[in-house]
Amino acid sequence: MRELELYFGPQHLGMVGNFSITLKVEGDRIVKADANPGYLHRGFEKLMELRSWIKNFPMVCRMNVVEPDSMEMIYSMGVEKLAGIEVPERAEFIRSIYLELARVGSHLFGLWAYANMLGFDTVAQWAMYHRDLVLDLFEELTGGRVYHIYIWPGGVRRDFPEGFEDRIVSTLHSIGGCVPDYDNTFFNNPLFRERAKGIGTVTREDAVAMGGTGQVLRATGMEYDIRKVDPYAAYDRVPWDVHTRTDGDAYSRIWVVRDEMIESVHMIFKLLDAMPKGAVYNRIPNPFKWRVPEGDAYVRCESSRGELGLYIVSDGGDKPYRAHFRTPSYPHGLTVLEKALVGESISDVGNIMISLYVVAPEIDR
Amino acid sequence: MSEALKGRLEAIFRDIETDGGREGRLTVRAPAASVLPVLRQLRSERYDYLQLVSCVDWIDDGELEIVHVVSRYLDGEGGLGDGPVRVVLKTRVPRTGAVLPTAIEVYPIAEPYEREVHELFGVRFEGHPRLTPLFLERDYEIPPFRKDFDTRQYVEDVFGSVPRVGEDSQDS
Lengths: 365, 172
Description:
The complex is a heterodimer of chains A (about 375) and B (about 170).
Chain A: E1 3-8, E2 20-26, E3 29-36, H1 44-48, H2 57-60, H3 69-83, H4 89-118, H5 121-142, E4 151-152, E5 155-156, H6 164-176, H7 179-187, H8 190-196, H9 204-209, H10 214-218, H11 226-229, H12 250-274, E6 295-303, E7 306-314, E8 322-326, H13 329-341, H14 349-355, H15 360-364
Antiparallel strand pairs in A: 1-2, 2-3, 4-5, 6-7, 7-8
Chain B: H1 3-12, E1 17-20, E2 25-29, H2 35-44, E3 49-58, E4 63-71, E5 86-94, E6 99-101, H3 110-121, E7 124-126, H4 151-159
């Protein structure tokens, strides 16, 4: 059969986000895929070199629209490591709770995109509504719904307001109460199974060779979670489980996401119970005159899509000399996606891409 | 923790400098010719995870520093008792005619990172199968992430003036 070249995205019904893939197809089958990022390249890392350490916080969170919080966290971790700043125990707990809330919100957003892609519009609307409830919590805590700029070096910006813990619990209960509905309508639905089972399979060997992390690895049975293997914040203070599946296909990945979301909610409850009292930030030098000591550091955390890393260099000045974010979507959207698409049908491109949890702004930066 | 690995690397490679042990991190400085052999050695010791390939422009020294961050996914069975070690491999090349062999054969994930470093810093990776642009759509005289590329001036030059549109624009 004749081989054709097909431009999939950035304007395409099956494409989520500003991203395109050049496909070589034979009939309906994909022979070769070339990922084509760059539609959202804003040069953030270069711009960061022009701004003082503290002024970069509103910038880093914009690298990922879906989950800006882990971006704040990783940049704080990098600056803290370079400057040798300690974080109070209560702030570590607040950071963990905040990041887990962000994970739930981000997974719900991912579920919206995925369910929409497969035509489960009702489930998608539920997920969007429930994400909005999480955003309400963020709005109360930080004043912003999407970009919060809440974590900064030395702790967090402010303590939880009066009664906030109770509102977290009640919001999460109202979302958690709908898990049976989600299961009946979506996760245990034979239609979802039909569409996702055996689609976009990534073997563990391939995932490891191509830098896969997060759900991509956990769906192949590897218990790899930075929160466990290289704990930060308060993740080693409470017991929790890493959820895995073994098939490595879209179905496994989405099930890992579901299990992880529920685990996050349980983790937040445990963290709230164990949270100590005390200060929520340590004083840092005057941020407008702050010079961070010379050196370089690589730090990493687990965002909702996998390993988020930051290589940061200071020359002892008042601005970062170089910052390079290793975002999870970068390997997932470039190398893993190109490999996973080969042999699949055109109609499953969006399905596979969202199941790999690719967020385009994170790749381009 | 990283002492064992440090000893092994220093025994094999004479031309590298190591510095480390701090918090399970080992910094290795190697000349361009030794990058690939060091990465091969690490790979053979089950350092299976290339986390990042980055580049830093040290303009005052006239050099670009290419950084490979390598570690293990899980430090379990088959390890050599190093514990969790992150190796930061740094290589300096001159800013003019910067070239380095590609690491794709050792770590396939190096492919997009090297493309990015080539595009943004102008380092050529020898043997790389597609050093085509990754993000950018225009041609630049100076690779845009180098320190001597003035972002603000560039923005002023390219986007500083708004072309006039509308009815009266035809007259002018």
